[in-house]
């Protein structure tokens, strides 16, 4: 099994594997091109995003700047709005459903690093996927950590750090982020 396969499978892998480094360079080249576009270059931005992301539905609006680690592990539905300064460390799958709104300065981190100093010194990493359901609203300055699933219809309050999965239809806030109440009319 090569380093990329290990990485997306959630196994430990060497972060500096030459193939992984090359994929990251390609993602950074594309994000630099996206970030250099003028605000009215919508079609050019869309074409570059299609090259960057593993899957991309229709009606995707991504404000710049963005910072993307690999790109190929991002799978997006349709009718998505992502505000300024989106950062994604997509060492594993990052799946975003339909009709999702993401506020400014939001970060998705699938990457883990070992707690043991020697393994960190050897540049060993591992990852867990992030899944965002349909009809989700993520407020500004939210951080979503590895292995988190946010269920359909959730609202994640600004400034939250999401360390554990949130069941569908919940309003959740805080650091660590916790459900505080059910979304009114969810599922009706």
Q: What does this protein structure show overall?
A:
Helix content is about 20%, strand content about 30%. The protein is of the alpha/beta class. The strands form four sheets. A seven-stranded mixed β-sheet has the order 3-6-9-14-17-19-20, with no helix packed on it. The protein has a five-stranded parallel β-sheet with strand order 2-5-8-13-16, with no helix packed on it. A hairpin with a 2-residue loop joins strand 19 (about 170-175) and strand 20 (about 175-180). The N and C termini lie far apart (about 45 Å). The mean pLDDT is about 95.
Order of helices and strands: HEHHEEEEEEEEEEHEEEEEEEEE
Number of helices: 4
In round numbers, the mean pLDDT is: 96
In terms of DSSP E residues, the strand content is 25-35%
Name the features:
188 residues; globular; 20 strands; alpha/beta; 5-stranded parallel beta sheet
Compile the SSE list and pairings:
Elements: H1 3-8, E1 13-14, H2 18-36, H3 42-52, E2 55-56, E3 60-62, E4 66-68, E5 74-76, E6 80-82, E7 86-89, E8 94-96, E9 101-102, E10 107-109, E11 111-112, H4 117-121, E12 124-127, E13 130-132, E14 137-138, E15 143-144, E16 149-150, E17 155-156, E18 161-162, E19 170-174, E20 177-182
Parallel strand pairs: 2-5, 3-6, 4-7, 5-8, 6-9, 7-10, 8-13, 9-14, 10-15, 13-16, 14-17, 15-18, 17-19
Antiparallel strand pairs: 1-12, 11-12, 19-20
Helix pairs in contact: 2-3
Short description:
The chain has 188 residues and is of the alpha/beta class.
